[in-house]
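Subject: mismatched residue count in predicted assembly?

I count 215 residues in my input, but I want to confirm that the predicted structure covers every chain. Input:
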Amino acid sequence: MKVSALETISLLLAPVLVSGSPSQNVTQVSIDLLDANHILHLLEVVDAYGHISVRNPDNESQFIMSFAIAPASATSQTLVTYDISNATPLHLTFNESVVGEDIPPSFSERFIHSQIYAAQPNVTSVIHSHTIEVLPFAAVGVGLRAQIGSAGSIGTLTNGTPIFDFNSVVPDDSDQLHDLFIRNPVLGDALSRTFEDGSDIVLMKGLSSYLECFE
Ligand SMILES: *[C@@H]1O[C@H](CO)[C@@H](O)[C@H](O)[C@H]1NC(C)=O
Ligand SMILES: *[C@@H]1O[C@H](CO)[C@@H](O)[C@H](O)[C@H]1NC(C)=O
Ligand SMILES: *[C@@H]1O[C@H](CO)[C@@H](O)[C@H](O)[C@H]1NC(C)=O
Ligand SMILES: *[C@@H]1O[C@H](CO)[C@@H](O)[C@H](O)[C@H]1NC(C)=O
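Triage response: the counts match. Full output below for your records.
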């Protein structure tokens, strides 16, 4: 079910107005982040599984992302502040007294976000989506190339956007969950190294995923 624009606004504003302890910067990026969650849902870029995050404007060593909930349902009360160094949930962004096991479960793929922020200090936002339409491109090894000016972030690299294949990463002891899902720093680091100058996007082979970073 889609959330109407009016519902989106009320979902967003009601909790922001009652809490209010975070800084103005954090409040502003949280509003943008929630708008982004709802717009990406309305445009069907993310379904139940995609996620978007932002770097904490007050602390470059942290990022903000919803706990594991469909983007359409994200509100200020579902936002969590994470430590970039280990993707640990620190506290609810709008209630710092909610910590540890009181924070609802996080997306297992949050290492996509933490490792990209760690590797690329100038990246302020990361989107990860399971986009069926781009699945065949990664499967046959054809990267995307911008065909119109407004698609500039796709880039115009000769071989198209880079393609990440978890099978190309040599597993190590800290990488026990070595599969399509980026659930540990080893795979997250390998993915973050796949980005190339000239393209803010990486296709992920086999996961129908598509990533974009904003600087
Ligand atoms: C923050 O969370 C605590 C613990 O759940 C709760 O008692 C308190 O009312 C919350 N504060 C706000 C402003 O929501
Ligand atoms: C809030 O954002 C402004 C503009 O980006 C920045 O100059 C300022 O340092 C930020 N405040 C904090 C506390 O980080
Ligand atoms: C910034 O975030 C890091 C990682 O969570 C933390 O160790 C550090 O204390 C924070 N800095 C400030 C000034 O809060
Ligand atoms: C952002 O940082 C990465 C890694 O340090 C670098 O390769 C890239 O050129 C930078 N992009 C911009 C626009 O500065």
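The chain has one domain: 20-214. Marking this ticket as 'not a bug'.
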